[in-house]
Amino acid sequence: MIWDLACVSTISQPLKPPDENSKPAWFALLVRPRHEQQAALALKGKQLEVFLPTYRLRKRWSDRKKEYDAPLFPRYIFCHFGRNQRRAVLETPSVQQVVGFGGQPYPVDEHELFALQSVERSGLPAAPHAFVDVGQRVRILDGPLSGLEGILMSLKGNDRMVLSVSLLRRSVAVEIKRDWGRGLNAIPAAAGQ
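Above: the chain's sequence. Below: its structure in token form.
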């Protein structure tokens, strides 16, 4: 695979426990291994909004090749729900827990989730990538990912943008064209970096 440009969202403020009366938010859910699709369908059956980002994976065995959609974040799906729906979410088959800290669920950063949804809608090739913390920041000015900011990376001559979900410490790389981006040397890095 070829990766060249990377975009990483970072949390600019320290994490605070969500307010008990807060409005619905996007949460990451840990599910049983290889049960992402089943959990997503079960949650949709409960009238909840679910996001399961996938990428095209090509497997090769000695006698055949197969191409299929695999989860970008194995064992994780994203679900939009309010505090009063948490029990129904946790009672869903294949769902093991809501991701958080100290036994307290934390919502996923809205900018990070928006970036992942933008990549999914764009149809550009994407694949899992090692989590990225720092690097040359860029802003995408053109193309289907216009407006996203992140970190420029290059691998084997191709441009990639890496999107990260800080809460999960996981990243996704999406192929882009170099002329879509512009360097952001004047923009300071997020606090703490």
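The CA atoms of residues 42 and 92 lie 7 Å apart.
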